[in-house]
Design a protein that fits this description.
Blueprint: E1 8-13, E2 28-33, H1 45-54, H2 60-70, H3 72-75, H4 84-93, H5 99-113, E3 119-124, H6 131-142, E4 149-155, H7 157-162, H8 167-176, E5 180-184, H9 190-201, H10 208-222, H11 226-238, E6 242-245, E7 248-251, H12 264-273, H13 277-287, E8 292-294, H14 295-302, H15 306-318, E9 323-330, E10 336-342, H16 345-353, H17 357-375, H18 383-392, H19 396-412, H20 416-430, H21 437-458, H22 463-479, H23 483-498, H24 502-518, H25 522-539, H26 542-555, H27 569-584, H28 587-604, H29 607-623, H30 627-644, H31 647-663, H32 667-683, H33 690-703, H34 707-724, H35 730-752
Parallel strand pairs: 2-3, 3-4
Antiparallel strand pairs: 1-4, 1-5, 6-7, 8-10, 9-10
Helix pairs in contact: 2-5, 5-6, 9-10, 10-11, 12-16, 13-14, 13-16, 14-15, 14-17, 17-18, 18-19, 19-20, 19-21, 20-21, 21-22, 21-23, 22-23, 23-24, 24-25, 25-26, 25-27, 26-27, 27-28, 27-29, 28-29, 29-30, 29-31, 30-31, 31-32, 31-33, 32-33, 33-34, 33-35, 34-35
Length: 757
């Protein structure tokens, strides 16, 4: 690397290696690279590339088998490795993918894979890594179970600092916990240059004094920069300053007077200028693709035959100039071509900078079109790459199309932040298109998906999600009445309900019901009645809430009304029915409905739906006065939330588990858990259920003798209830306030008349 930007290598790995390891079989080595063109947008890009490369080498069957058993959520991201029937089977197994599930699965797969054979993952250019890859590095480093795993990550510190990339924070945290080791790649000294010359030209060729004299001059010019050193030596060979004489390498005595370019960039520029025009054109075209490229795509960009480009690349690679061979590429349309890579990122950068704007636009567009044709129906697999080419090629319409697809791909990997990155850029681009009905429809699709992903990444109460849904609703006014208006209203309903803005949520629920009546979609009635029931339940109209929720249950068809991207309406309706029945005084019916909700949730196999069913089941047991059963549900919910990263229900699990512990005599530990649960509710920004949460805390404070704290909690609960209108737990609040007042009165009477019995 350059002096102003040394490359760092961090060894990241599991410190709990197996004791007394047996001699290892040959090592698995997987290599992956982050790409500047994609930035943070392609979730797990280098890790998937490394795994994909491993699965194409000898012994691939055993690796694919391990992934199939332990990490199907990863295997499904690499469809080219599976037949159509195998892919279909794996997809059936991976509903409800979350970041936590993917990380857990890949850790278990690595542990299984490395039982007999070590694994080395080499991840290059981490200064351009996506967020999900950083999560992978942190998770693997902190894994406590043994694994023969070594992760080597290379990055440029200057780029990380300038771009404020989160890699800096991740690295510092790992160093703090002694979970990685950082190795700076130092500049070479004169002795290193002597060793290089001896290896390149042979110990018996250049005399020792010649090597030392040459090394002194090269080090003085390059200051020990490895890339610069290699280029200077190549230059001196080309200028015949270092030449062969009767099979022996010799150095001209006039070496000190040789004009050497001042820096490596000048060297590369000079090397490029010395190439024939055809080779220069080919390398410049290759530079817009990335560090690696296939000859077929370059041929399309230059409108040449693949054979011509293959010959040029092979010629340069054989000379060790600019390129190195990287095997072959095979596309879905049957095209097979050579694959090459630049020897260094600086070669690609310098070549790319020599392109004019017009040339760049033309090449990107041609390359994008060729890749799109080659992948056909599977073009979505390379959506990020296609989006980059079409954006640079000024084909905005197709760039938006593939950015939307890239967002959907990120969602399938639970890369919600990466999805937001793609969709936000797509929204920016689509607004530059002519203001037509087609543009409005395209932006509507983007805003709806963006709203969902902002809700998942920032929480249902995130104002950014609200903005996306509001804009989607505005676009519906342009597009007309479509099912998407219902989706936009549904997103706004969830936002306002989560923030306990119940009047607004109620108005939207009424709109949803009117929309359902005006449409022919039976599924809309399922959701509309459910939303009405949720608002009525929250505002304390429990009997009316029951009516709407039962109507939602009656309309629900498990075969046609399942929505894998959101919560299952059948599970939600059954859960809410259980809670409503409990409040109306039908505890046995409530328990039956709760069991039905849990059964359906496990059948649907959707984590968010199951977490809701478990949360409500825990509350039902709490309201029935069953602390042991409440704790069992809360523990299962807590494990599920930890594995799947479900923050809101995790807070509820902690709170109710603490309540159960207090009821069974573990007061001190239970109070700590309940306080943690309340804090977790505040962190996720949920204002709904706050009167209930405060009432529970007030009750336990009173039980352990902290009556003043309990009275403060009750006062705050009433204040929140009056502000939001959330009154479903109002009766209990009055009961608790009465008990606290009664206790206070009795205590006061005893203090006034200590002799009274």
């Amino acid at each position: 690397m350059f002096r102003q930007g040394k490359r760092q290598k961090a060894k990241i790995g599991n410190s709990s290696l197996a004791p007394n390891p047996q001699p290892l079989a040959p090592v698995f080595i997987g290599r992956g690279q982050c790409l500047e063109q994609y930035g943070v947008g392609e979730a797990y890009l280098p890790v998937l590339e490394a795994l994909g490369n491993l699965c194409r080498e000898p012994g691939r069957e055993s690796i694919i088998a391990v992934l199939n058993q332990y990490a199907p959520t990863w295997l499904v991201q690499m469809p080219a490795l599976l037949s159509a029937s195998e892919l279909k089977q794996v997809r059936r197994r991976v509903q409800g993918i979350t970041k936590e599930r993917m990380l857990r699965e890949i850790a278990e797969a690595v542990e299984a894979l490395t039982h007999e054979r070590a694994l080395v993952l080499c991840l290059d250019d981490l200064q351009w890594s996506d967020y999900a890859t950083l999560d992978f590095l942190s998770y693997m480093a902190r894994r406590s179970r043994p694994a023969r795993l070594l992760v080597l990550g290379a990055y440029r510190p200057v780029d990380v600092i300038v771009a404020e990339h989160p890699l800096k924070t991740v690295k510092q945290d790992l160093l703090l916990h002694r979970q990685c080791e950082e190795l700076a790649v130092e500049l070479l000294d004169e002795d290193d240059v002597v060793v290089y010359l001896a290896r390149r030209f042979g110990e018996a060729s250049l005399s020792k004094p010649s090597r030392q004299r040459l090394a002194r001059m090269i080090h003085a010019r390059t200051e020990g920069n490895p890339l610069f050193m290699v280029n200077v030596v190549d230059y001196l060979v080309g200028q015949q300053v270092i030449r062969q004489d009767n099979g022996q390498w010799k150095v001209e005595s006039a070496i000190e007077t040789v004009e050497v370019p001042l820096n490596v960039r000048q060297f590369i520029e000079q090397q490029i200028d010395q190439l024939p025009t055809a080779l220069r054109q080919m390398l410049r075209a290759a530079s817009i693709v990335g560090m690696e490229f296939s000859t077929a795509v370059i041929a399309a960009g230059l409108e040449k035959t693949p054979e011509e480009v293959e010959h040029s690349c092979a010629e340069l690679a054989q000379r060790g100039q600019f390129l190195v061979t990287k095997g072959t590429s095979e596309w879905p349309d049957g095209t097979i071509s050579g694959r090459y890579g630049f020897l260094h990122a600086l070669y690609q950068e310098v070549l790319s900078n020599r392109l004019t704007v017009r040339e760049r636009i033309k090449l990107h567009k041609r390359v994008g079109e060729r890749l799109e044709t080659a992948y056909g129906d599977r073009a979505k697999e390379i959506a990020v790459e296609l989006a980059a080419h079409f954006e640079q090629g000024r084909d905005t319409q197709r760039a938006v199309q593939y950015l939307y697809q890239a967002g959907e791909n990120a969602v399938r990997r639970s890369g919600h932040r990466e999805a937001v990155t793609h969709l936000t850029r797509a929204v920016e681009l689509v607004q530059t298109l002519p203001n037509t009905l087609e543009r409005a429809q395209s932006e509507l699709n983007l805003q709806l998906l963006l709203g969902t992903q902002l809700s998942m990444s920032k929480g249902f109460a995130a104002t950014e999600a609200e903005r996306a849904y509001v804009r989607a609703r505005e676009l519906c006014d342009q597009v007309g009445e479509t099912p998407q208006r219902f989706m936009a209203l549904g997103g706004l309903f969830t936002f306002h309900l989560t923030r306990a803005e119940l009047k607004t949520a109620g108005d939207i629920a009424a709109q949803l019901l009117r929309f359902a009546h005006s449409s022919s979609f039976d599924a809309f009635f399922v959701w509309a009645d459910l939303c009405q029931g949720l608002v009525l339940h929250a505002t304390g109209d429990i009997a009316s809430a029951r009516q709407h929720i039962e109507q939602s249950i009656a309309r629900y068809d498990p075969q046609t009304h399942r929505f894998p991207a959101v919560q299952d309406p059948g599970v939600l309706s059954l859960s809410q029915a259980a809670e409503v029945l409990c409040l109306l005084g039908y505890p046995e019916q409530a328990l039956r409905r709760s069991h039905e909700a849990l059964t359906l949730a496990r059948e649907v196999a959707h984590p968010l739906s199951l977490s809701h069913a478990l949360f409500v089941a825990t509350r039902v047991h709490q309201m029935r006065g069953e602390p042991r059963l409440a704790q069992e549900c809360a523990r299962e919910l807590s494990v599920l939330c930890h594995e799947q990263g479900l923050g809101t229900h995790a807070a509820g699990a902690t709170l109710l588990q603490g309540w159960g512990m207090i009821e069974e005599g573990q007061a001190e530990a239970g109070v700590v858990l309940m306080q943690q649960g309340v804090a977790a509710y505040q962190r996720v920004g949920s204002a709904l259920n706050q009167p209930y949460v405060l009432a529970l805390l007030a009750e336990v404070y009173a039980k352990i003798g902290h009556r003043e704290a309990g009275r403060q909690m009750i006062a705050e609960a009433f204040a929140r209830m009056d502000t939001s209108g959330e009154r479903w737990y109002e009766a209990e609040l009055y009961r608790l306030r009465g008990e606290l007042l009664l206790t206070q009165t009795i205590k006061s009477q005893k203090s006034e008349n200590p002799n009274s019995q």
